[in-house]
Structures are given as structure tokens and as C-alpha cells.
TrEMBL record:
This is Signal transduction protein. The lineage of its organism: Bacteria, Pseudomonadati, Spirochaetota, Spirochaetia, Leptospirales. Signal peptide: none annotated. InterPro entries: HD/PDEase_dom, HDOD, RNase_Y/CdgJ. Residues 230-425 form the HDOD domain.
Length: 490
């Protein structure tokens, strides 16, 4: 896939067409990377996740449609004959869906194709997914039913509660598309499915102007009220933070304030003696620890200590969030060491990774069962950005909630940006993008280790930047850093 050639075609208002026999997860990964280029060229980067999610769903539907027709042909069944259709569909789940990895072998070099098309007209960009498998009357009726039903949903929680027909693409996927387009401001009316006796074509137009629809849900209101009700960071910590921010502060005075807090003193000594600071001799005093870690790292430790105190006081020890965050923090320090970042970034990397998911505490606190339902829906898949589902279900994603908390507690800008954009590094301010990219990659590597995400869900451009764009190299890197992490976590 030649990104520059495709961009050149779009610039000259020519139609760009990419053909497939079967769209694999690796090719979806390439499509995502391409969309970052295309939507960036159109100054619509903020819509990358929405457009990719829609296109991926359409490409998967085309895969299934072609695989089904190929199967019917191999079984000598007439897909237009009601009896043959019922017989073939009775075997569809067992012989196609459960043997999905075999479908590429069946379709490669065959008669069925899938095309992804793009074209720019003025400030509008048109997408289409086309395959040479016409929709049957029964399939079209099911699709139209789902599209019609989706109009009644305001958010994803309605869809989760109501969707019962999961046959092929007629379940949550079409509802997801309708909600995404409506709430993103693109508009569901700009999505169409056309069919004739030769092909099926789904089209999407992204207009010049999009006005996102604000999602108001009971959960969103409850969460925002929850944020308002959270206490400020403890005064004992903010006092030390202020001292750290004052270049004229006396280190002995700072050490004296820290010594009044046994838990903070223990955390500081542990940090100063960690491998990240590579000291030759054991650090035994608070004043020595302050000198070793520096005022910026000390300030960051204070933020972590304050957040832990508040969150555990309000919601108890949500260990799955902290366990993931601890792993992510270690992975981020590893990546920073391997890829030699500037000292300015090194000061904030570990704590940014440790606090990147603080928004999840709020989601879990107001409706743990529903949030876990979203996680389970995507677990182990190469589904890309999970935050879209949170936004559609609640009206806010956990990075957005984390940013609201960071603002409430007056975190420094670099920490707020890392929290807000850790799922969308390409949206981060350019001067902090390197920081956010490291947090993103550490988070995705942690998710991979925890079987929450697959390799092909990760941004291909960033994998290449970190030298991890080969699945074997990536897997070995995760194994290596996980072994190191476990050795220091015992």
C-alpha cells in the first residue's frame, strides 16, 4: 500500500481503489495507518477512529458475505433458493465462523473480491466498500431492520440491552455504525447500502462540516457529579508540591515535610533505590532520596500518592486498574531507556503511565458490570480503539474522564496531555507527542500481555517508529520486558 500514491490520487480528485480477496487483520492495521494520513490531509484527524471503525465493520461484513457465497458454491447450494439458504445457514457458524482462519485459503485467487474506494470532492471525502456478492432478499430485510431499530437508540447501553439478532452482520455492528455516525456529527443519512444482481456497495461520505451530537446519559450525569464530589489532593501533599515548583525552595525543608508522611517516605525511598535511577549505593535518607530523584520526579510521586489516597478512600483498592497501570509504568520506563528520550520526558514518563487510566475508576464506580461488559465485548480482538464504545455508551471515555480529574487536581500540562491522549497519540500537541506515543505503546504492550488486545490493533506507524512492526519481534519484546517486570515485582 503506497500511502503517498493514494494521497496524490486524492489530491487530484481521482478515485483510489484497493482490492482484496479477503481483508486480514494485518490489512486492517494498514488501513488504519492509511486513514491517519488521509484524514490528516483533510484536516479531520479527530474522525480517524470513527471512520476506521465503520470501514472495518463494512469490510468484515464483505468478508463474511463472500465467505458465505464461496461456501454455498463448494456445497453446491443455491443461495437464492430458500431451502438451500436455510440448509447452508444452519452450517454457517460451524463451517465458516468457527473456521474463520481457513477462509483466506478458500478465497485467495478466487472469483470473489472486496474493494476499498476513496475519493475527495472539494472538502468532502467519500468512502465505499464494494464486493461482488449481491445481497439476498432475506439478508437485505435483516439489514434494513437493524438500521431502522438503531434509530431508536440514543447510546450503546440501549443497544447492548436490546440487540438479540447476532446472525452475521445483522447484530451490534450495524447499530454501532448508526450510533457512531449520528453522534460524531457525520450523520447516519450519509451512509448507504446499495445492491444489484452483481455487487453490494456500502458508501459513506464525510462532509466538510461535522457537528458532534452531545451524548447525555444517566451514567454521564452521575459520573460528572462524582467528579464534583471528589475531594482535592491532601493539603499535606499540595504543600510539598508547591515547594517542588518553587526553584528557591530549600531541599532540607522539603525533606522535613516528607518525613512527616511515613507512607510517602517509604514510596520515595523505594523509587530512589529502583533500577530506573541506577544508583551504585543504597539510598537511606529522605534528603538523599530527594537529591537522587529530583524535584520533578518527587512532584510526580506526590500526584500518584494523592490520587491513590483519594481513589482508594472513595472506591477501595481496584487492583486490576492499578496492576495494569504498574505494568504499563514499567513498560514505559523500559521503552524510554531503549529509545533514549530526552531528560525532560524521562521525568514524567513513569508517572504518566501510572496515572493514565485514572478515569477508569469513575467508570467502574458508577456501573462496574456495564463497563466490564464493554471490555469483554472487545477482549482479545484487534478492534482498535475501545474508547469509542465508552463514548457511545456513556458520553465520555476514560481518557476524557482522566483529563477532567487531572484538571480538577491541577496536574501539570504534560501529565494531563498524557492521560487525555494515551489512546490517540496523533491528536496530542506536537511538543508532547513523543511522551504520549511512549505511554500509548506501553499501554498497548501491556494490553497484549494481558490478552486484552491483539498485535494488529496497534498503530502500524508507531510500531515502526519503535522498531516493533514485526509480530515476532513485538511478541519477543513483550516477553522480555514482562520477565523483567516480574523479577522486580516479587
Amino acid at each position: 500500500m503506497n500511502f503517498q500514491e493514494i494521497i496524490s490520487q486524492l489530491e487530484s480528485s481521482k478515485e483510489s481503489r484497493i482490492n482484496y480477496y479477503f481483508v486480514t487483520e494485518e490489512q486492517n492495521q494498514e488501513i488504519y495507518a492509511l486513514l491517519v494520513h488521509v484524514m490528516g490531509y483533510m484536516d479531520k484527524l479527530f474522525l480517524v477512529e470513527v471512520v476506521f471503525t465503520v470501514l472495518k465493520e463494512l469490510l468484515m461484513n464483505a468478508n463474511k458475505a463472500n465467505a458465505k457465497r464461496d461456501y454455498f458454491q463448494r456445497q453446491s447450494l443455491d443461495i437464492q433458493n430458500p431451502k438451500d439458504y436455510a440448509k447452508g445457514m444452519a452450517q454457517f457458524q460451524e463451517n465458516i465462523i468457527q473456521k474463520w482462519n481457513e477462509q483466506l485459503e478458500h478465497l485467495e485467487g478466487g472469483n470473489f473480491y472486496i474493494s476499498l474506494l476513496m475519493k475527495v470532492e472539494g472538502k468532502n471525502i467519500h468512502f465505499a466498500v464494494e464486493n461482488n456478492a449481491p445481497i439476498t432478499t432475506e439478508e437485505l430485510a435483516r439489514i434494513n431492520k437493524r438500521i431502522e431499530v438503531a434509530k431508536n437508540y440514543n447510546d450503546l447501553s440501549d443497544a447492548f440491552a436490546d440487540v438479540s439478532d447476532s446472525t452475521e452482520s445483522a447484530g451490534l455492528g450495524l447499530v454501532l455504525i448508526q450510533l457512531l455516525l449520528k453522534n460524531s456529527g457525520i450523520g447516519s443519512e450519509r451512509f448507504r447500502i446499495h445492491t444489484n444482481d452483481k455487487l453490494t456497495r456500502a458508501t459513506l461520505t464525510v462532509p466538510e462540516i461535522t457537528t458532534p451530537q452531545e451524548i447525555t446519559t444517566t451514567l454521564k450525569t452521575k459520573i460528572l457529579n462524582e467528579i464534583d464530589g471528589l475531594p482535592p489532593l491532601p493539603h499535606s501533599l499540595t504543600k510539598i508540591i508547591q515547594l517542588c515548583n518553587n526553584p528557591d525552595s530549600d531541599l532540607n525543608m522539603i525533606a522535613s515535610e516528607i518525613e512527616k508522611n511515613p507512607a510517602l517516605s517509604a514510596d520515595l525511598l523505594k523509587l530512589s533505590n529502583s533500577a530506573f535511577f541506577a544508583n551504585r549505593s543504597q539510598v537511606g535518607s529522605i534528603i538523599q532520596a530527594v537529591k537522587v530523584v529530583g524535584l520533578k520526579n518527587l512532584r510526580n510521586l506526590l500526584y500518584v500518592s494523592g490520587v491513590r489516597k483519594i481513589m482508594e478512600g472513595q472506591y477501595g483498592k481496584v487492583m486490576d486498574v492499578w496492576d495494569h497501570s504498574n505494568r504499563c509504568s514499567y513498560y514505559a520506563r523500559y521503552l524510554a531507556t531503549e529509545h533514549t528520550v530526552t531528560n525532560k520526558l524521562a521525568d514524567i514518563i513513569a508517572v504518566s503511565a501510572l496515572l493514565h487510566d485514572i478515569g477508569k475508576f469513575l467508570l467502574l464506580s458508577v456501573d462496574r458490570a456495564f463497563f466490564k461488559k464493554i471490555e469483554t465485548f472487545q477482549r482479545g480482538t484487534d478492534s482498535g480503539n475501545s474508547t469509542l464504545l465508552e463514548e457511545m455508551a456513556i458520553g465520555l471515555s476514560h481518557p476524557q474522564l482522566g483529563a477532567l480529574l487531572a484538571e480538577k487536581w491541577e496536574f501539570p500540562l504534560d501529565l494531563r496531555v498524557a492521560i487525555e491522549y494515551h489512546h490517540k497519540p496523533f491528536m496530542a500537541p506536537s511538543e508532547l507527542r513523543e511522551l504520549v506515543e511512549i505511554i500509548y505503546m506501553a499501554n498497548m504492550m501491556s494490553d497484549f500481555q494481558e490478552t486484552k488486545k491483539g498485535f494488529y490493533a496497534i498503530d502500524k506507524n508507531l510500531l515502526a517508529k519503535f522498531g516493533l512492526d514485526n509480530i515476532e519481534v513485538f511478541t519477543n519484546a513483550v516477553k522480555k520486558v514482562e520477565t523483567l517486570y516480574k523479577s522486580v515485582s516479587k
